[in-house]
Design a protein that fits this description.
Elements: H1 4-12, E1 17-21, E2 27-31, E3 34-41, E4 47-53, H2 58-62, E5 69-74, E6 79-84, H3 90-105
Antiparallel strand pairs: 1-2, 2-3, 3-4, 4-6, 5-6
Helix pairs in contact: 1-3
Length: about 110
């Protein structure tokens, strides 16, 4: 089980990462001007992570894990995915954030 504090700690350890704030005031971790991790909250205040993937088929790939990855927006070359932080362990969170950092780093 991880939290946004874990996501910040792991994300900010990546080269060039810095804390940021989304237009609605939500905290982010960014590379350049592009966030690669963003805090989202469920209606009950449950913490969720928004991250990015270069896999446009991410929704299909994650379909079997809807209890973890519950929202996917697909764009031509990337996907934005939301995951419940309390369903991720630290190793999986580290992999997700590293991949998202790589995906967003390339758009600078």
């Amino acid at each position: 089980m991880t939290t946004w504090a874990d996501a910040q700690r792991i994300g900010l350890a990546l080269a060039g990462a810095k804390p940021g704030v989304a237009p609605d005031g939500a905290p982010t971790v960014a590379i350049g001007r592009h966030p690669f991790a963003r805090l989202r909250l469920g209606d009950d205040g449950r913490e969720a992570l928004q991250f990015w993937s270069l896999d446009p088929d991410a929704e299909a790939a994650l379909a079997a894990e809807r209890d973890v990855f519950f929202h996917v927006d697909t764009f031509p070359v990337k996907a934005s995915v939301w995951a419940w932080l309390d369903r991720l362990d630290e190793q999986e969170l580290t992999e997700i954030l590293t991949d998202s950092w790589r995906a967003r780093r390339g758009v600078r």
